[in-house]
């Protein structure tokens, strides 16, 4: 099996789908000749031609509108929003249009669009690059929101997203792009959207996370093990829809939960997850469900970023609280 | 500094074929239409005017919902639509229901759209269109995408989209034209300049003298047309269509028109922002009046023929309302069903909840 970084796995997934289905089109700012600012589309224009992999003028709203229109002509567009903070420019195109077309048309039209975009903190970007806006997108009925945490997951989830007949927001954490390699099969495979993955089994506490925070949870779990605490780490992989079945099964086993998100605390995914847990499993709980999140400020200026972002120590602190409740 | 604006604006003269008296003033530009086709244009305008009158009445009786009156804009709406082929794609704005109807959307479905029933948005086989866009501008960027798709597929078709004078202030307006221009995609962008964006006059909307000149910044062709002259509108659209399918890129068409009625039937009162003098001035330019004169002079139209269209329209509207009434009531479970191809678990749960509610 090949060793790949997440960005290589993502490129590989697009290459496979461009090869499999002539309706797949890849486009965005700098994705053609330049291969994308992170090289996610490296070599794809050369391999598949300018009609399949191409640059767009610089306007996120029109990138969304272009994807919508191409979908109406039977294409399977895979546009890139260069950094997810720029999505504000495309909010109507995505949430007002792409997300609603199946509903609006009474099921007669659909938008099999996968919008890829880098996001996530810890890489010292200027403003409006790193924000975790998955909650904003997950609030929009009609969208699916996918956030991989490993190269293996990234490839299987991206292929599944491109093949999905509904629009998918595919968020790629910048810190995970090249920070480690993982085993990735060279052949094609898919990972079902909406299915969580237990990244580590444990019996004392459940850590629910996604994206880069999965790795913070795994690190926390290693530390906790030294104190004899066995943490189970659930990687949601898809935050819309959420695999609550897997979450509840774990809650019933461990009876203690900490939900971890890189996003700010207010109106986030963690709040939604906790609401579901207390509705469905309150009698299984031995302690309140706690959250690890960033504080409710606008995304941190880079010099405060390291403290602002949740880390494994914050997770350990909350785990100790639920264990000792 | 060389001043260019004045020179550019001077080039955007209003294109007209038929003047207010129904006389051809631009013989060279006269489109190649048979007598039957000319009569068909009149038929459609009369029919659509009656449809508008009946729709307003039905709305007042509470038998229709959301409705944006169309009277005054028939030349602009139907002249552009008549230049299309059946395989062309229409992206209408909320006032552009007539184009959909003449492209093949059954009348009862247009009424269901007004009533807020999703069946009104289900385009029948062979009608390539979106349901009317409610937000202002999104359709411009979508038209660029549809047109690019047609180009990639090698189709000899166009995407045509509509907005109003207010819509030209949206970023999407420029973005859509710019993208289509950059890709030389076969799109036609129509601005129906009816002078008021709800209440704000076009003079407050932009410093530009014409809206057609906004094409210049996107590097595409632009033309200002007398929107009360259905022949000029048709000819301009036909030419834009030819250029588009020949790979010569998109066109922006500004039609100068006027809506006689309110913005929508939801409480807008035009007397708050328009004078009676202005209304009268525009009603003199009426697209039906001048085209009727033109056809009568050619011996192609009579009161008898007009009455036949009016009777037919009334009869079909009555039947369509009856059919709309018979449509099964919309359910929340139908809406849930149309969210995703396969329902995720949380929506399956909600589906069960609403099935139970709806069976009570």
Give a structural overview.
The complex is a heterodimer of chains A (325) and B (360). Chain A contains twelve helices and 14 strands. Chain A has 325 residues and is α/β, with parallel strands linked by helices. In chain A, helix 8 links the parallel strand 10 and strand 11 (231-235). The model of chain A has no long low-confidence stretch (mean pLDDT 98). Chain B is of the alpha/beta class and 360 residues long. Chain B folds into two domains: 5-328, Rossmann fold; 330-360, no CATH class. Chain B is built from 15 helices and eight strands. The longest helix of chain B is centred in the first third of the chain and has 26 residues, at 35-60. Chain B starts with a helix and ends with a helix. At the A-B interface, helix 3, helix 4 and helix 5 of A face helix 6, helix 7, helix 14 and helix 15 of B.
> How would you sum up the global shape of chain A?
globular
Give the rounded overall mean pLDDT of chain A: 98
Percent in helix of chain B: 40-55%
Oligomer: heterodimer
Strand content bin of chain A: 15-25%
Radius of gyration of chain A: 19 Å
What is the C-level CATH assignment of the largest domain in chain A?
A: Alpha Beta
Count all strands of chain A and give the number: 14
Molecular shape of chain B: globular
Which strands sit side by side, in order, in the main sheet of chain B? 1-7-8-4-3-2
Straight-line N-to-C gap of chain B = 76 Å
Biggest sheet: strand arrangement of chain A:
9-11-10-13-14
Output the CATH homologous superfamily of the largest domain in chain B. Thiamin diphosphate (ThDP)-binding fold, Pyr/PP domains
Order of helices and strands of chain A: EHEHEHEHHEHEHEEEEHEEHEHEHH
Enzyme class (chain B): oxidoreductase
InterPro entries (chain B): Alpha-ketoacid_DH_E1_comp, DH_E1, PdhA/BkdA, THDP-binding
Subunit structure (chain B): Heterodimer of an alpha and a beta chain.
Coiled coil (chain B): 303-330
